[in-house]
Each structure stands twice: as C-alpha cells, then as structure tokens.
Amino acid sequence: MSDVLEKYRQFESAIIRTIPGANTDRIRSAFEFARLHHGTQLRKDGTEFVTHPLAVAEIVLEIGLDEDSLCAAFLHDCIEDTDATFEEIEKLFGPDVAIIVDGVTKLTRVTYTSKEEEQMENLRKMLIAMVRDIRVILIKIADRLHNMRTIEYQTAEKQREKALETMEIYAPIAHRLGMQKIKWELEDLSIDYLDPIGCGKIKRGLRRQQARDESFLSRVREMIQARLLEEEIKCKVEGRIKHLYSIYRKMYEQNKELAEVLDLYAFRVIVDDIEDCYYVMGLVHELFHPIPGKIKDYISTPKPNDYRSLHTSVIGSEGVPFEVQIRTVEMHQTAEYGIAAHWKYKEGREGKVADEEKFAWVRRQLESYQESDAQDFFQALKIDMFADEVFVYTPGGDVVSLPAGATPIDFAYSIHSAIGNTMTGAIVNRRMVTFSHILQNGDIVEILTSKSSKGPTRDWLNMIKSTEARNKIRQFFKKEKREENILHGKMNFEAELKRQNLQMSDVLREDVLPKALARVSFSSLEDMFAAIGYGGVSSQKAVNKIREEIRNADKLKKKEPEPEPSPVMVLKPPREQKAKPVKGVMVESLPGCLVKFAKCCAPVPGDPIIGFVTRGFGVSVHRQDCVNYLRSKKEPDRWVNSTWADTESGTYSTEIQISASDRKSLAMDIMTVLNALDIKIESFSARNLGDGTAFISATIEVKNRDELVRAMARLMSVQGVTDTRRVDG
Ligand code: MN
Description:
The strands form six sheets. Strands 1, 2, 3, 4, 5 and 6 form a six-stranded mixed β-sheet that branches. This protein has a five-stranded mixed β-sheet with strand order 14-18-16-17-15, with no helix packed on it. It has about 725 residues and is α+β, with helices and mostly antiparallel strands. It has 28 helices and 22 strands. Helix 3 packs across helix 8 (about 135-150) and helix 23 (about 515-520) runs antiparallel to helix 25. It starts with a helix and ends with a strand. A hairpin with a 5-residue loop joins strand 9 and strand 10 (about 400-405). It binds manganese (II) ion.
C-alpha cells in the first residue's frame, strides 16, 4: 500500500518539474478516486490495480500531455471496470476529463473480431475516427503500452492476441501520429510474443556481440563528438543498436543472418539549429565515407507524419557501415513524441503561434483548430484524418469503410450490387431505419433483401454518398432495366408485326432498316425496343411507320432492274448477362453471391435446391425437402430460387446415417465399401447404442445425387445394415 503512495509522491514531483503551475491537488484527487473505486481489485501481477493507471499517467506525462490528460489517465478504466459513472467524473473533474475518459472507454470496447489484414487497416481508421479529442487516442496508446509492458502475466493466448492487435493497430497509429519512441517499444514488445523463436535468436546473437558492439558505438561516438567540439558546435551525440523489430524485419524480409545485417548501428547528433544540421553532415562526411545515394534530407522534405531529420549512411575505417541522423532538439522531440511534442512546444511559447509551418501536418491531418490560446489547443484538436469516412460493421463483424454521410444504401452496394438492387429495408444496431438514415461510426448494419424487390428508384441517387453506389444504381437503370425493356419491347414489336402480317426479316432488309430507324428516330433497333418496352413509344405506332418504309422500299425495288441479293443482317439479341455459378450453384437474382451449403440437409448436385439469404449476406443452399425449408414460413422473402449449374464439377460433401446391428468390424466393412466406390470419407463416427445396434454417421464427398444413391444402395448390402439415409435437418 505505502509502496503505491511512495510511487505517487515521486510522480507528483515529476509533475511539478514538467508542468509548472499544474493543479496537483486536482491530479491527486483523480489518483485517489481511481484508487478508491478500483478498491481491492488486483492486477495479474498481484499488485494493487491503481498501479496501472499510475503507470499510464507516467507515460502520459512523458509524452507531454496536460493536466486534464493526467486526470483522465488515472480515471481511464473507472467507467469500464468500476461503479464510477460519467456524471460523477464530470461533476468532480469537469466535462473535458469526463469526455476523454468516456472516449477511452469506447475505444476499449471496440472488438477485434476479424484478424484479416485488410480489416486491420479499417479498424485502425475506425479507432481514430471514433476519437473526438486527440488526447483520447494518446491515452489509449499509453494504456496499451503499459499493458504490453506487463503482458508477461497474461495467458499465452492473450499474449499473442494482444501482441497482434498492438502490432497491427496501435503501433501503426503511434507511427501515424509521429510517436516514434512509443511505436518502437510497442513493436519490440509485440514481436517478442508473435515470434519468440526468431526474437530469441536475435537477442542471443546481440548478446554474443554486445562487447564488440558497445566498443564500436563508443569509438564512433567519441570521434564525432571530438570533431564537433573542435568546431565549437553545441551537440549531443548518441549511439545505439537499432531496435529489435527493425533488425527482425531486415533479417526475415531479406532472409539474412544477424551477421549479415549491416546497418545495425545508428548514431544521432542533436544540435541547436538547422544550419548546424547541414554543417554537421559535412563534417561527418569528412570523417567517414558517405555511401552514395544514402543521404536523405527530411528537413527540406519532411515525412508525412512531420518527421524531420538528415540521414546519411557512411562507412568508417573499420569497414562497418552505420547511419547518422542529424536533427535539432525540436525535431528530435517531434520524432520521439510526434503530435504531443507540437503541443508541448506551443504551450512553452505561451500561445505565440508564429510558426504556422510547424503545425502544417497536424492541420492537414487534424481538423482545423482555433488559434485562440495554448490551453485550448488540445481541446480544439479533432481528428480529421478520416473525417470524410465512416466505419461500420457488417453483422459478421467486418468493418466497412464508407464516405461520411453514407446511408444503408451505400452500405448495401458496397457489399454487392445484388444486395443493393434487391434491398427492401435496413436495420442499424437492431433498429429498423429509413433508407436515408445517416450511418455513424461503429454502427452494425444489416440489409434486408427480397427477390421481389423492384430495384432502386431514382430518388436513391439523392440518398447516397459513395460513387460505388451511384455507379451501380446507374448501371442498374441502364443495363438491367434496359435489357428487360428491350426484351419486352421486342416481344411487343414482334407481336404487332405478326398482327399486321409482316416479318422481322422485312424490317431487317438492308434497304429498309436504315430508313425505318430514321423514320422512328432511333439509332438502333435495340434503342427502339427499349423505348417500346419502357412505354415511350407504342409498338403499333412503330410498326405503322416501319411498314410505310417497307412499302416505299418495295416500290423502289420494282423499278430497279436487278435486285442484288443482300446479305441478311442478323439482329443481335440483347446480350444476356451470363452469371457464373458459385460452387456449382446459380442463385436467382443474386448472381455471384457467397454460397454455402446448409449442414442440415447437405445438398448435392441433382437435389432440387432452394437458397436462403442469410444474415451474414451469404446464401445458404438447402434441399427443397429439407425440414428447415418446409417448416420455415416466417421469412418467405429470404428464400431464393436456386439451381445447379450444368457444368457441375468437383465433389460435394454430404452426410449419411447408417443403422445396423452391431458386430465386429462393421465400421471397417462400411469404409471398405465406400473406399471401393472411390468415395472420400471426410469424417466417420460409429456409436454403439447399447441395445445391440450401432449408429454410424459419415460425411462423404460425392459428385452428385446419382453417385450418392448408388453408394447408399451398396451400403444396404453390407451385412447387418438395416437402414441408410441422408441427413434431413
Ligand atoms: Mn487500462
């Protein structure tokens, strides 16, 4: 107990040193509030829980955040883990602290359901987009850093899971915010759990060459220092081995051994001003041989996260290459702490914002802030990086990125155009919403579809934000409807021709068609059919006009001496959209959709089938005699007609059940029969029911129903078998 209090006393003096004028009473009461509420709760390492928020506050202080952030750091787990409420915190510490704590709590609740790579980027973006105040994400990163530092007390599974999240989400966010120091530590802590074998190898290797490395580092450091002293340049020179993860990446990406990783050493020269940076680079190049093409000037061209520094790679007299980074104190601060360093500097200057340049990247990435005064700087900072995007979940837990202001229609089309085109309703966070409902970050969105849907209407175009949805809806109007219209129009037109005793071949005559089209003012027959189908022109009117042209052409023909046989033009039928079957199944009105086979009835080619549009957006294919289909009349709209494609190939897995009187080697005989029929057995289980009978269930792979029926018939002839049947739900 007194241990914690002693730690807090030390921390308090650090606050006084770092933030002059900080209200230590207020910060102390945040500490005490956390201590009180977490009570007897212990961490996995056996220490009092409050040591965690205290450690997080220490990191937050090191990053350079303000008094509110320190209070929030102490309270960050209170809403989630204790009975403390938002209102209570707001009352005691003010709305800013409460909002930050609330923000951190929300980030804590984000679930990482998917571990797929493309999902990670979206999750990263979503986390950032959820944050209204930049301090929230900074505290969350500090929280994660301390949790990673103490992760050895967690289970192996938890370790891997947290390490992956940290590597894929938190380290990249730290990087994006320019917090190099924390990013490195997060990466080094994570990789150790993600690949303990690889890291162990590196660590052992580094330990072996430690003495050699250290003497090399100090030799070079002293050389640089001595030379700069001669020139009377005020500087600080550091030498270090590159961090674990960067060595790891070099070794495993380039397939090298530790001994082959050449640029293992890095030196850093920190000087007072930019002029000195360039001057020092010149001196370094006098001392060592610069490697051509390895000079990087991030001062004149800063990195997107505002990293600024000069880099050069050189080779010393010992033939060992190393990198030297040269930067000012301020650039160094920015490189280590990123966005937070900007704030620190700004506050140090008492709100004087002369150097707009310095904040350029923050402004680019963060919403514009009012240049009022220093204290307001952070409060006004809002993340803009993804202000034009919104991130929502599918019911399956995948994150979908949409433009800000997007509606369920955008969402539906982002999943599949067939989903959009058959959309009949939307459910957001389990509530039915309108089509024009604006989606918010973290919403769970589900689309209801129906094959009897008439498709998008013109006003949908006013409700959407994404170009994807726009294009797909336009395509629908143009293509799907057009083809439908052409078909209808052509049928009407042909019927009318027939009624007037004319033939299509008359219309297609070379001496008729161009004039006929001109007469009806269409550039092609398809266009005319489309117009008829749409109802823009009546078929009767069109045929009447064309009939006159046929007569005119006939008159002309009689005058002409020798009618030349003209090649018959063939009307191309409207291009049929031939959808490809998925897993051998064609799902009506949802071409190309995800197909899975229902386990309850395990259909195979030859079985009459029906599709069920699942909530996970795939179509689950059932047998038409499946009890689940026969009994489910609840959601008739979700059932879609499905057929097997003619070009069935491959095998389908299905389950059969066999009853038999138990005897020795019964299972063996059944397997032998299946084997003789060249049928692959996926799983096989035999159970003695105790009354002298056995129940066998086998999942097998067959090409089609015929093969399955043959196999079942064959199994009936196995001695003792009384029944074979398929699963029926
Ligand atoms: Mn925490």
